Amino acid sequence: MKKVVSILGDPYHPHEPLVQFIQTILKKLPQKTYWKDSGMEELGKELGDKPDLVILSKENRLSLGDAVKNMWLTKELDHALENYVAEGGNLLALHSGLSCYPETSRYHQLLKGRFVHHPKQTQVTYQLTDGTSFSFYDEHYFTQVKQEETEIFLRSFSIYGESLAAWRHSYGKGKVLCYTPAHSLAGMLEDMNQRTLIENILWFFESK
């Protein structure tokens, strides 16, 4: 059985739709899972218990306003997240899990990329490397990624331009997956979006 811990929700991204999404995804995995939806206050302890997967879909700001004064990622948690992955853990940074984290943080180094901005919601097309694509109304995340240090497997297109939507790589003995879709529950539950995320979650559980 795979133990999964999630940290979900922030001022811009309600908790309950994310819970429904993660619950739906985990039920479709071939592996049996024990899932605990936890909070940032418990993250240090959860990491110490060495779960098989940590899902972080929470931007760094605790409240709207000054990101520097309202960040939840302490130096201790920053180090703990890096140690968890380097020692063999798996980290999924989902949507807002890429937002407002300092470029000087170890977490940013783990991800090898970050959210930069998004325009107002629009129709976004996501395209896999084999040319398969799917579309829905979404926040089009524009990202900055160290492309030479990771594997890009999903790109995004809208009237506002093109961006990198998902990437994955090894880090130490562990693995990191960054996945930008989706903001709304409808987008989260879109069939191809689910299938793409599930396929890449399974990558975590392949032999390292």
UniProtKB/TrEMBL annotation:
SUPFAM superfamilies on file: Class I glutamine amidotransferase-like
Cited Gene3D superfamilies: 3.40.50.880
Domain ThuA-like: 69-203
Protein name from the UniProt record: ThuA-like domain-containing protein
Species annotation: Enterococcus saccharolyticus 30_1
